[in-house]
Design goal:
Layout (H helix, E strand, L loop, with lengths): L1 H24 L2 E6 L7 H16 L4 E6 L7 H10 L4 E2 L25 H8 L2 H9 L5 E11 L1 E4 L7 H4 L3 E4 L3 H9 L3 E4 L5 H6 L5 E4 L1 H6 L8 E3 L5 E9 H6 L2 H33 L4 E3 L3 H11 L1 H10 L1 H17 L1
Helix pairs in contact: 2-11, 4-14
Bound molecules: D-xylonic acid.
The site of D-xylonic acid has 12 residues, from loops.
Keywords: Receptor, Signal, Transport
Family: Belongs to the bacterial solute-binding protein 7 family.
Pfam families: DctP
């Protein structure tokens, strides 16, 4: 009995020692928050980022992950980074627009014809220059990750044309481009933080929303939405970003560890997200009425939202809009 007690005691001591050594080794703590839950590709890629950073910093940096808006909504988390009370987040570009106006360009409808065209522009000079502009706002843009093509869901009726959208109360991200696009189709759009969305649909405050297939499935939106349509009306990038206050405190070698891990996790994220979105569209066919638009039907949506370009071109910056469109054409010509 006495021997057994001694063994248990030494085990507890060993555990305490290990824990204290690990926490002692961490000189820097990154608290990273996102809005999606821990089944999302975004969270899986953050786990991969965490692994790379903790290993390559020899434990000098520890990364704590918080999902499902535990640390606040996208805007609140970006403000926390500016204040230095949180170290990382990964919002869609849409809520970034109030911080750096140029990010609005990525929320122009039907801007990117393919994932690869999006990668080409985001990883090219235009996308990278916008990331650089975040630094004036106390944010360090590390890499573009992927949210994906946004698809409409609703609880009222199948949607095959812009006509079917008329009168639908559609939740949008807090971004004027999204509001304008749905107004052009005759919907009643309501901007709302992601964390409030599920209960708003459940209570009928909104009839519908739009997000990639992975989000629609993994956040259980199908429990409160009966119909979905592959509108694919906007390609949403995520921006993995860090508090500049925190980043500037890191020694150069650890800044490099973070930057390289963000890029490696970007490739992991795009690959995982694309595979998951294809898989979850199939799963949604078992739980929702899925409308797959013909090319002619999709062209009707593109035509309906075209006025958004004229409405916002000057506000975004005509030169920026034209350079992105030119880069897309350049990429398409190489295919
Ligand atoms: C999650 C959001 C979400 C976005 C939205 O934090 O708000 O609908 O698509 O992914 O960023």
């Amino acid at each position: 009995m006495r021997k057994k007690l001694m063994i248990n005691l030494s085990l507890v001591l060993l555990l305490l020692l290990t824990f204290s050594v690990t926490s002692l080794a961490a000189e820097y703590t990154i608290n990273a928050g996102i809005g999606l839950n821990d089944k999302s590709a975004q969270y899986m890629s953050l786990e991969y980022f965490k692994k790379l950073v903790e290993e390559r910093s020899d434990g000098k940096i520890e990364v704590n992950l918080y999902h499902s808006s535990q640390l606040g909504d996208d805007r609140e988390m970006m403000e926390a980074l500016q204040m230095g009370t949180q170290q990382m987040t990964c919002p869609s570009t849409a809520p970034i627009a109030p911080f750096v106006n140029g990010f609005k360009v990525f929320d122009l409808p039907f801007l990117f014809p393919t994932h690869e065209a999006a990668d080409y522009v985001l990883d090219g000079p235009v996308g990278q220059n916008l990331l650089k502009q975040l630094e004036d706002e106390g944010l360090v843009g590390l890499a573009y990750w992927e949210n994906g093509y946004r698809q409409l869901t609703n609880s009222k009726r199948p949607v095959e044309s812009p006509e079917d959208v008329k009168g639908l109360k559609v939740r949008t991200m807090e971004n004027p481009m999204h509001l304008a696009a749905w107004k052009e189709m005759g919907a009643n759009p309501t901007p709302m933080a992601f964390g409030e969305l599920f209960s708003a649909m459940q209570q009928g405050v909104v009839d519908g929303q739009e997000n990639p297939w992975g989000t629609i499935y993994l956040q259980n939106f199908f429990e409160v939405q009966d119909y979905t349509t592959d509108t694919g009306h906007v390609y949403s990038p995520f921006v993995l970003m860090m508090s500049k206050q925190f980043y500037d405190k890191l020694p150069t070698d650890l800044q490099q560890v973070v930057k390289v891990a963000a890029i490696e996790a970007k490739h992991h994220n795009r690959k995982t997200n694309r595979a998951m979105n294809a898989e979850y569209l199939n799963k949604l066919k078992d739980v929702m009425e899925v409308t797959i638009l013909t090319p002619e039907q999709k062209a009707e949506f593109q035509k309906a939202v075209q006025p958004v370009y004229d409405q916002f071109k000057d506000e975004i910056g005509a030169e920026l809009v034209e350079s992105v469109q030119q880069q897309v054409e350049e990429f398409q010509a190489q295919q």
